[in-house]
Each structure stands twice: as structure tokens, then as C-alpha cells.
Amino acid sequence: IQFKQVEMCASSSTARSFAGYIHLPSNSLRKVGLDQSKPINIFFWFIESQDAPEKAPLTLYLNGGPGVTSSLLRETGPCQVKANGRSTRTNPWSWNRVSNMLYIDQPVNTGFSYDIAANATVDFRGNATLLAFPAAGTSVAHDSTGRLMQVGTVGIGTMETDTAVNTTEAAVRAVWLSLSIWLQDFPEFRSPSNEVELWTASYGGHFAPALYDFTMAQNALGVSGPRISFRTIGLMNACVDALVQLPAYPEMAYNNTYGLQLINKSTYMATKSSWDEPLGCKSRIQACRKALGSSPYLGDNASINTLCHDANTFCGKNVANLIGASGASFFDIGHRTHYLTDPGLYTYIGYLKQGHVQAALGVPVNFTDEAIQVAKAFSRTGDNLHRYYLESLGRALDNGVHITLAYGDRDYACNWLGGEALSRSIPHKNIQAFQDAGYQAVCFPPMDTNERDRGGNGIASAYVRQHGNLSFTRVLDSSHTINTDWPSVGFTLFNRTLTGTDTATGLIPLRHQEEEKSIYSTQGPTSTWHIKNRLPIDSKEEQGMCYVLALSFCSDRQLNAYLSGRGTVRDYWLLDFGDG
Q1: Which terminal residue of the chain has fewer beta carbons within 10 Å of its beta carbon, N or C?
Q2: Name one GO molecular function term (predicted).
Q3: CATH number of this structure's domain 1-542
Q4: Can you tell me the distance from the alpha carbon of 400 to that of 213, in angstroms, rounded to the nearest whole number?
Q5: What is the phi/psi pair of residue 173, to 5°?
Q6: What are phi and psi of 296, to 5 degrees?
Q7: How far apart are CA 567 and CA 560, in angstroms?
């Protein structure tokens, strides 16, 4: 392990911060079944709690993707980047107010993590090519503007289609070993029982239950090192299990609480058939899982990879990826695909491009916000369809782990209808009692001005179903990332879970209920479908601000102005179209 104290992004005068790498040399993971020909250098950023760090819980935060950075500077960290991309401001809803926070960029070649550093050219879509001439900062002959292509240093795996980490099960082995090493080098932040809070989002719905299962298996084997246990698992707009969640996609597209019909009736009916028919999506998922068997799969069987990849492709085309023609965003149906809802969402990319920031963090590679090759590697194995992770969550619940599920109801990617179905399907001893519990409104603390601006109607609303240590919360007027739309909501759900209190009020203690034979349940209607939403006032806007480090949120006209070199760019913002 290698790290340094970091002074940037300070949350208080006393909370320390450390950034560095956990180095896993080639074949470090062979003892856990992974053939790893290249080193894995996992980047971490640890931030102490603002309140009594020696007593505060330790939270491990992973993001999804697969291949998306931890989002410390965008969502839950102590600072956020200003519009100029050069400086930061304090995040009043930082999760390190109540917990020590350990952020990890994974799988390898995500964020600042890398295998073998190599100079490369990177095009505007994020595709990297090995550089024949190794001079950093060298101009690309056919692109003197740097708008089509830039030179940088990345992990060599960023340019390769073949990687050892191509499934969830492979990824969590590196995470488990990294966490074990980190705990041994930072003993002052270990609890007596090595308890860790595990929080994630989106595709992290695969990573969290897989990491839980693998960690419990290692504990049972009595391996050397800290015996890690997870006290809570938080899943925010998480995709966990395709068999349970995929049927919700046509429903969300055709019949949602915003009154939007993003597909027509004939497409809706055809999609339903594509799920149930003999060679449909459901049967293909089942065939994939039958081929996988019950053992964790590490992506090393070509025929299984092809079977599961083809099944995932069929399901994506015919069941899930339905709304492209509507123009609605996959991650926020209340806005158009290329509309940037908040100018602060991606400025952290510009901030992390600065040389002095990289020097302060001690990183030898450039920042990769979304690792394209990681996503492609997982896609080639059909990883999205693997494993019945509901069973993993059920085991965790029955072992006393507190599980929080929270879903913004404008998200389509991992939508709340699928999340609700997921919550009702987790097999555990109190499943019937959870299903019988009603929905109750969640009480939140006062918001700040920025939240009122983001939320459209200025009021945070959410409804929770909870029985004991399992809760499902529908957050109204929120996209795929609750923590960017309603930071106070994300913090409140996190804090109440960590303190072991009810989600609705934070006033009712939940621990030790089973011993007292009185398990808490929310009261109210068994559905929230009657609660309808209004669209944001800018829901029809086709063009917002264009941040050139996040070109997918720029309109075609903005994209052309930028790539042609006509438009004026300052601080990575496109200021004009350059057409007079």
C-alpha cells in the first residue's frame, strides 16, 4: 500500500484525508481463483469523519457502471467542484459528517486505478490507443486543437479488449483483498469486530451482494487478515437481478407516474411477448444461469460468455432499451437525453485533469471517468444476467445486516418499479411481513437553496416501506442519482441506516428488535402508485449548457461547434457556436 495525506477537499480543520494505491502484483489473486497476468493498482481516497473519527463507523463506497468512478467529488464527498473546474466548495451534506469514508475506484482502469501505466491518445469518446511516441503533451498531428484527441497516461488495459476482470465475481476479489490490506494499514479506523458499512449505486447492485457473499466465504475459510463483516448494505437506484427487474422496463416506459408514454401500445405489447415467449428474454436468462451453475463465475469459459452475452443483447434490445426514440433521458425521463440539468454535475472531470491536483493525489495516470473497456469486458461475458443476487441479500438480512434500497422515480436505467419488485422478492425469513407493510411518508431535515432549485417543486418527498432491517424508499422527482438531485435525502437515508433507526422518522431504534419480539413496520397504503408527479419546468428543453468533457450532454449543434473548432471554449464550457 502507498498513500499520502491530502490537503485538498477539506471538510473541516481536523478531518484528515489520505489518497493512494493498494498494489496487487500479478497473480496476487490466484489464491482466490483469478488468473491475473497484470498488476492491479487500486486507487483509494479516504476521508475521516468530521465527528470523532476514532469512534465513527467506516463506510466503503463503490460506484456502478461497471467502470464508473466513485463520484466522491460529485455526490457524497466533503467538497464539490465549482463551475470553473479549478476550485471546490464545501458539500453541506457530505457523508463524512457521520462516517469515515473509503472511496475505491474499481474495477481496475476505472478512475485513477490502473494496471500498467502507458502513454496513449484518447479520443473524444474515451477510446484510448497506445502512443507510438512517448512524450507527454505531444500534439497529435491531425488535431492541433486537442478537441478530437488528446495525449495522456492511462492503464494499458484501457486499450485492450481482454482483461482478467470481466465479471462481478472477478472484480469483488480485488476489492476484498484491497479492503483487507487497507484495514491492516489503517488499524485506527477498524472497529473491534471489523464492521464495515457497504454503500453503492446502479451496477453496484451486483458488486455489493457479491462482495458480501465472497467476504463471508473467506471468513468461513479462516483466511489470514481481518475478519470483515458488513453491518449495512445501501443500494441506491441499483440494478441487482435481471429476472426480477427487467419486466419493469416496459411498464416504466408505457405507464409511469409522470403520465409519459415513451413507447406506443404495440411496442409495449411486443415487449411483453419478448419477455415471456419460449425463446424470449426470460428463458434466455434462465439458460445462461443454468450454464453458469451455482459456483461464482470468473469469465473464463468462451461458450458460456457467448451464451450469456447473446442473452443480454437480446434482452437489452427487446425488453430494456426501449425509450431511445422518445428523446427522454435513460437516467431521467423528466429531461431530454442531451440536456445537462445541473452545471456542476461533471466539472469534477476538469478539476481532476489539473496537474497540481494529480500531484496532490499522487497519481501517475490521467483520470478516466467512465472506463469504456471495462464496460465492454463485462458485456462480453453477459455479466448483467449472472447470479441470483437476491439470495445474497436474503442471507445478509437473515444475518442481521440492515439493507436500505432507495430509488429516484424519474430514473429509467434502474427504475423504481423494478426496485420495488426487487424489495418484495428478496427471500428472507420476514418476507411476508415486509410485503404486508404499508408505505409511510419520510420526514426530512430542511433543505438548502441549491436543492430547491434542482427539485423543480422545491419539496423533497419520499415514501418508504420498511419491516425491521429492510427498507425500500421511492424518492419523488429524482433521477438515477438521488445524491445529486436531493443531497439531504441521500444523507438522511444513509445516516438513519447507520444509526439503526427507522427510515421514515429517524426516531425509532431498530436494533435488538428480534430479541424483544417486536419488529417495526411502516403503516399505510400498500402501494404508492396513486401518487403522481409533475414534470420539471425544463422537461422539454433540447439544449442546455455544453460541458465539453461530458459531450453526451451536448446537442448536435453544440457538438459540431466544438469538434469543428468554431465554438469558443472556456473552462471546458462551450460559450458560443462560432458562427458570427
Answers
A1: C
A2: serine-type carboxypeptidase activity
A3: 3.40.50.1820
A4: 14
A5: -65, -40
A6: -55, 140
A7: 9
Q: Give phi and psi for 22, each to the nearest 5.
A: -105, 115
Q: What is the 3-state secondary structure (H, E, C) of 38-105?
A: CCEEEEEEEECCCCCCCCCCEEEECCCCCCECCCHHHHHCCEEECCCCCCEEECCCCHHHCCEEEEEC
**Model confidence over 373-431: pLDDT tens digits?**
999 999 999 999 998 899 999 999 999 999 999 999 999 999 999 999 999 999 999 99
Place of cell 448536435: 556
Q: Please name the amino acid found at residue 290.
A: K
DSSP secondary structure letters along 568-579: -EETTEE---S-
480 is catalytic: yes
- Told to judge if 411 belongs to the known catalytic residues of this protein, a careful annotator would answer yes
Could you tell me the residue ranges of all domains in the chain? Answer: 1-542, 543-580
Residue type, 206: H
The one-letter amino acid code at 430 reads: N
DSSP 257-284: TT----S-HHHHHHHHHHHHSTTSHHHH
Contact 341, 454 (CB under 8 A): yes
209-236 per-position pLDDT tens digit: 999 999 999 999 988 888 999 999 999 9
Burial 27-61 (b: 16+ CB within 10 A, else e): ebbeebebebebbbbbbbbbbbbbeebeebbbbbb
Q: Which of 49, 70, 113, 202 is catalytic?
A: 202
Q: Which of 335, 402, 428, 480 is catalytic?
A: 480
Separation in Å, CA 143 to CA 118, 123, 147, 570:
21, 10, 7, 18
Alpha carbon distance 149, 169 (integer Å): 34
φ, ψ of residue 315 to 5 degrees: the values are -65, -40
Take residue 294 and report the three cell numbers written for it.
Answer: 451455482
Q: Which of 383, 411, 477, 485 is catalytic?
A: 411
Quickly tell me which residue has 483487507 as its cell: 180
Classify each residue of 121-152 as buried b or exposed e, where b means 16 or more C-beta atoms within 10 Å of its C-beta: bbebeeebeebeeeeeeeeeeebeeebbbbbb
Half-sphere exposure of 159 (CA within 13 A, CB side): 17
User: 450-497, pLDDT tens digit by residue?
Assistant: 554 444 445 669 999 999 999 999 999 999 999 999 999 999 999 999
Q: Where are the alpha helices (DSSP H) in 97-224?
A: 168-185, 204-221
Question: Is-cis flag, bond preceding 525, omega within 30?
Answer: no
CB 352 within 8 Å of CB 19:
no
- Rg of the chain over CA atoms, in angstroms? 23
List the grid coordinates of 34. Answer: 483469478
- Count of Cβ atoms closer than 10 Å to residue 314 Cβ: 16
